[in-house]
Queue: 4 jobs
Job 1
Amino acid sequence: MIGRYSFLQVALVLFGAIFCLVYPLALVWPSGWAWHEGPPAASQYYMMIVGVYATLGLFLIRAASNPAANRSLIWFTIWSSLVHAAIMAVQALQNPQHMGHMLGDVPALLLVALVLGLLMRGVEDRNIATG
């Protein structure tokens, strides 16, 4: 039976894989995923972000095997995605050359937060009811 818990597992694997692909996304669509001119590797800052997101992505994929045991990681992903998206949106609005992010990584991070938040809420409601 496919339920909210199964959807959460699928979402964790999907978003984890996408987080691992931040570097290739910047190659394909730099105005939506990179904050500097030139190739992604030209920015030391960007490469640090790639490393952090790839690590988070691998841990989200691992968390999919037992989301209930990895609630803290999942909630960190939700809240850090919201904060990251909010900061990027403000910066993009202040710098017209970065408006591509309003169609790229800003809505992507909001989608991650929304989907994981809704799925986690249902899982935690179920745990409270059965706990």
Job 2
Amino acid sequence: MSFTFHKTFRILPGVRLRINGRSWSLTLGGRHGQHTINSDGRRTSTLDAGPFSARRDHRR
């Protein structure tokens, strides 16, 4: 069994910084749409519209 940890900081309304043992990520947006960038260069956009959601992973 392995243990992990993470810590999330709210920088501004709609901007969050999440740090874990190996990387960090910056999330922009609110409850219905977000754009996330992590330290490995992966970018993800998420759109949530009630019971439907869409997620797109952007390639470098």
Job 3
Amino acid sequence: MFSEKRIFPICFVDINDKPISHTFCVSIEDVKFISSESFDANIKSIPISDRNIDFNKGERFYMFYNNEKVAYCELKSDIK
């Protein structure tokens, strides 16, 4: 499922798991599995939000696949 160049919908959430962004699609690259339940990857193709929100290191988001949440993720660097 988590192969190179695959497109996934994501949605950023606050500390209470409430959405703080629209759902939009990203591709993941350079996937490196840390364990069977954890991996690092680079996010590519993030469009500019219509709300012009910057996403900062430590912010969390859900990744979806086939209309289900498949990953709870955290940014390791800022996205401006």
Job 4
Amino acid sequence: MLVWAFAAYQRAQPEIWDGTAAESYAGGSGTESAPYLIANGAQLAKFEQAANDGTFGLRYAALTNDIYLNDTSDRQSWDEDTAPKNQWTPIGNVTNTFRGQLDGRGYAVRSVYINLPEQEKVGLLGLFES
């Protein structure tokens, strides 16, 4: 007798960034052979802060998960008056360009919100050197 079983599948809710920066990375030392491992929004924020305040030079990082910076259930209403909880600061700025590599390894950073209408070159990465 042939029996087909179907398991109920419910997609797990992603971890949404709480707007803080982590104390440490998920691993790595920031070198090309041992990049910082970034598993969540708080670790990505730690990387952004270090790049933007100039505390390190040439650094490497790699994602180990998809990262969600905001809840997107109301994204159609996002504008300058109705912003989501977290606004992203681009990695790399005029004072401290980002030098290194951020390897997505097939993962994505999702629900990025940036509202900097007076600035040019904004995105997940701002100003960087290759």
